[in-house]
């Protein structure tokens, strides 16, 4: 009998060895599928739980079970789960008293990356109040728009953002908006200091009855995305979607003993949902940075024993461009989670900094489809398996780049892209993968819905992104369509930039697009403009216009002056040719200008300037 058992065991080992040899990714596939099924089972349990069990409850459980565990490291200070819990209680009580907050009231957070961001949000969650996460780079018209579209009547701001609030304060006061500053005092009429009230408030726990009506489909957050056109849109993030996003860490192999480094802004879904909320789901520790610093990055990782880092393509490029050091591989980082890294940067990053499992993602805040490259295949944004496609049905369809619309057959249905062919990614809208849309913007919500895709009456979410699926089921990001470009990790709506440019007295029309720059991630802002009759391009005035009204990442660094702008047959501005031509003065006859930050003006783009940009002597 023992001989038979030995022989059977030997055959089994040979079979497994053969399978691993012929299917080297099977182990990764099986591990990911099992993790996905476990996480899906948890989400189903949370859907059915009564009373509702949310991310806040997960945090409170951690605070009870491991009160002394460090939740946040920040600039040399450590805040435990118990301390953050108490501070969030104080925030909630202070807002109850000062703002008369009640369950369901939306509060806008205009805060920098700092621990108070976390406990202010938790305090709001304890009151059952959704939070609108405002981008701290926006100003003026964009700030007012973002604030108003979520229906908030209250804004809480950091002291360093007081000037930006004061700029729009008259409008806020006209609308009856309550403005609070996280400072002990403020002499500006209409802005109430809140920090002193928080410090004096009780830190006793609050009753769960204050949020008794919160359920799995309740709105938890509003996170802003530029999308395809117009001003930023408030993507609605439900409690269910927050849970699903928090699972990304677990899906990437992060455990309860890891330390997660968050250097991305908390107003983005990456920093807030995947980073901070994901850490709450894991019950672990985050190292929070005000902003990314290439010079401090690895020292922070060593100081705090960081094991998981977060990135966008630009941050990995900055790390690879930093001076080489002998101790570059002296760290404990084992996983990097993020998106947007170029293949060459990815390869160099691994070569310089060691065997780090890069988990490249594809997702959109408002979207219903996403991918994770759980195999570390360089260049891919994900890998498709049958479990993924069952829970998140999607397809790639043929897309006409010139007309900027899907290609349809004689029956009016879309045509699926072949394997290996670039196509528009669309995710089927189902109960498991819903598309909720944007707050207060039915028109833009409808624009993202695509009907009659594979059969009459079906409904899909249009990602606006072109991807490619190869024969090995790896997914590759190819390009973005429509009126958006991405620079410095931020999505920029071209129509918003165009609106600002045409406010300049000399500019008649503006066609804004993203231009590729060698050695840089994404596309930098560029505009083709026409001038009003009798006007010359006013370098100083246009510079003042874009700097006053646009964040740095959205400002067009290159401007091309044309006699007229080309239009399509449906009167849309043509961009494809402009994008291809870029900004090389040797190839373009039109006058070209460059935004020179040191001189605080636009200057003519000479061959010498162009070479300096191309060689990266000039930092963009």
From TrEMBL:
Keywords: Cell membrane, Fatty acid metabolism, Ligase, Lipid metabolism, Lipid transport, Membrane, Nucleotide-binding, Transmembrane, Transmembrane helix, Transport
GO cellular component: endoplasmic reticulum membrane; plasma membrane
Domain (AMP-binding enzyme C-terminal): residue spans on this chain: 496-572
Main location: membrane
Membrane topology annotation: Multi-pass membrane protein
EC number: 6.2.1.3
Catalytic activity: tetracosanoate + ATP + CoA = tetracosanoyl-CoA + AMP + diphosphate; a very long-chain fatty acid + ATP + CoA = a very long-chain fatty acyl-CoA + AMP + diphosphate; a long-chain fatty acid + ATP + CoA = a long-chain fatty acyl-CoA + AMP + diphosphate
Coiled coil: none
Subcellular location field: Cell membrane
One of the Pfam families matching this protein, by short name: AMP-binding
Stretches that traverse the bilayer: none
A molecular-function term among this protein's GO annotations: nucleotide binding
InterPro entries: AMP-bd_C, AMP-bd_C_sf, AMP-binding_CS, AMP-dep_synth/lig_dom, ANL_N_sf
Enzyme class label: ligase
GO annotation, biological process: long-chain fatty acid import into cell
Database matches in SUPFAM superfamilies: Acetyl-CoA synthetase-like
Full protein name: long-chain-fatty-acid--CoA ligase
Native source organism of the sequence: Kryptolebias marmoratus (Mangrove killifish)
């Amino acid at each position: 009998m023992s001989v038979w058992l030995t022989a059977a065991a030997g055959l089994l080992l040979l079979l497994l060895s053969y399978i691993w040899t012929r299917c080297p990714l099977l182990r990764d596939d099986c591990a990911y599928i099992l993790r996905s099924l476990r996480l899906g089972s948890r989400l189903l349990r949370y859907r059915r739980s009564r009373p509702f069990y949310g991310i806040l409850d997960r945090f409170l459980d951690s605070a009870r079970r491991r009160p002394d565990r460090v939740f946040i490291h920040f600039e040399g200070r450590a805040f435990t789960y118990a301390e953050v819990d108490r501070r969030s209680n104080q925030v909630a009580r202070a807002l109850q008293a000062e703002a008369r907050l009640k369950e369901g009231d939306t509060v806008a957070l205009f805060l920098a990356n700092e621990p108070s961001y976390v406990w202010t949000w938790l305090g709001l969650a304890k009151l059952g109040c959704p939070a609108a996460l405002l981008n701290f780079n926006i100003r003026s018209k964009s700030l007012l728009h973002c604030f108003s579209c979520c229906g908030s009547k209250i804004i809480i701001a950091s002291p360093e953002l007081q000037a930006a609030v004061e700029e729009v304060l008259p409008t806020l006061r006209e609308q009856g908006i309550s403005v609070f500053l996280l400072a002990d005092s403020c002499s500006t009429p209409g802005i109430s200091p809140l920090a002193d009230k928080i410090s004096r408030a009780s830190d006793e726990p609050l009753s769960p009855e204050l949020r008794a009506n919160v359920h799995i489909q309740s709105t938890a957050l509003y996170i802003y995305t530029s999308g395809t056109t117009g001003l930023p849109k408030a993507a609605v993030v439900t409690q269910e979607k927050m849970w699903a996003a928090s699972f990304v860490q677990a899906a990437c192999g992060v455990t309860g003993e890891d330390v997660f480094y968050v250097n991305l802004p908390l107003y983005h879904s990456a920093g807030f949902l995947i980073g901070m909320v994901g850490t709450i789901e894991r019950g672990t520790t985050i190292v929070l940075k005000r902003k990314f610093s290439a010079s401090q990055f690895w020292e922070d990782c060593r100081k705090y024993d960081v094991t998981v880092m977060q990135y966008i393509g630009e941050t990995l490029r900055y790390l690879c461009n930093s001076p080489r050091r002998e101790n570059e591989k002296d760290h404990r980082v084992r996983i990097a989670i993020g998106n947007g890294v170029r293949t060459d940067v990815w390869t160099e990053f691994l070569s310089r900094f060691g065997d780090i499992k890069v988990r490249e993602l594809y997702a959109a805040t408002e979207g219903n489809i996403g991918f994770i490259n759980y195999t570390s295949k360089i260049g891919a944004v994900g890998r498709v398996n049958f479990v993924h496609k069952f829970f998140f049905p999607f397809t790639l369809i043929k897309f006409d780049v010139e007309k900027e619309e899907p290609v349809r057959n004689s029956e009016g249905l879309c045509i699926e892209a072949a394997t290996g062919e670039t196509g528009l990614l669309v995710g089927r809208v189902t109960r498991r993968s819903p598309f909720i849309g944007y707050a207060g913007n039915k028109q833009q919500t409808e624009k993202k819905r695509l009907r009659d895709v594979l059969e009459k009456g079906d409904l899909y979410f249009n990602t606006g992104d072109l991807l490619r699926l190869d024969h090995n089921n790896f997914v590759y990001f190819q390009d973005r369509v429509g009126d958006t470009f991405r620079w410095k990790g931020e999505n920029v709506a071209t129509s918003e930039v165009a609106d600002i440019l045409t406010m300049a007295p000399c500019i008649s029309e503006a066609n804004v697009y993203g231009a590729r720059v060698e050695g840089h991630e994404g596309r930098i802002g560029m505009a083709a403009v026409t001038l009003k009759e009798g006007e010359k391009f006013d370098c100083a005035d246009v510079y003042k216009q874009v700097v006053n009204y646009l964040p740095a990442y959205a400002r067009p660094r290159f401007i091309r002056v044309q006699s007229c702008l080309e239009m399509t047959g449906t009167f849309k501005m043509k961009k494809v040719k402009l994008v291809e031509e870029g900004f090389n003065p040797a190839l373009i006859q039109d006058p070209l200008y460059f935004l020179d930050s040191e001189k605080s003006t636009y200057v003519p783009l000479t061959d010498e300037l162009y070479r300096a940009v191309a060689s990266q002597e000039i930092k963009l």
